[in-house]
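Worked problem 6 (solution included).
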Amino acid sequence: MKDTCAGCHVGTPTAAQGNAHQSSNHTFEADLTICSSCHGDGVDGAALQASVQSQLTLLDQTIAAKSIKLISAAVVAKGTYFVRAYDPATDEYSSTSVSNVALTVAPTNLTSAEIHGQSAFIFTMATPVTINWVNAAGAPAGSTTSTTFQVPAGNIQAGTPLAAILPAGGILGKSIWNYHLLDGDGTKGIHNLPFYQQVIGATNAQLNTL
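Solution. The predicted structure is:
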């Protein structure tokens, strides 16, 4: 099974397991204990993943800080910005499509999230925000008051007409996409560490220009 998917993901069964038609790894997750068998005694798969996760966490924090900076600038320039809020507990939005929750202060913290495959943030506000929810047909579905809620990245908007504060083609929009590309892969670099490091490095270099 050397140099095959099964070589890393299944592992070589013992003689007893083979006779019983069993493998040593039914999850198909990479067996991090065998990396050194091909890459040398100093290679620790778990340590590599931990290093990449640390880099991804720092990238997420940088994206959040830069995004808050742009949102704060929009508040200064426009006074008000609008979001389309999302409630993962009920799978409901604040509108069927438009950004309609008016905010006058930037969030104190942002954390990356995904909403039905879309890049999003978990907003944390200094004071609670009351949001009226609607169902898929647009009918009222109750309200909540909380300091946290989710927002699709493209639905953070300001101006007349409304325009995205973090447009998909801008540095932050592309950085958010890069983060989700790597984080969503789930391997934490174990398949292609140089690619992960290249993407993280290039993304940080662009973010540093903001």
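Discussion: Strands lie at 81-83, 86-87, 92-93, 101-103, 109-115, 118-134, 140-152, 156-158, 163-164.
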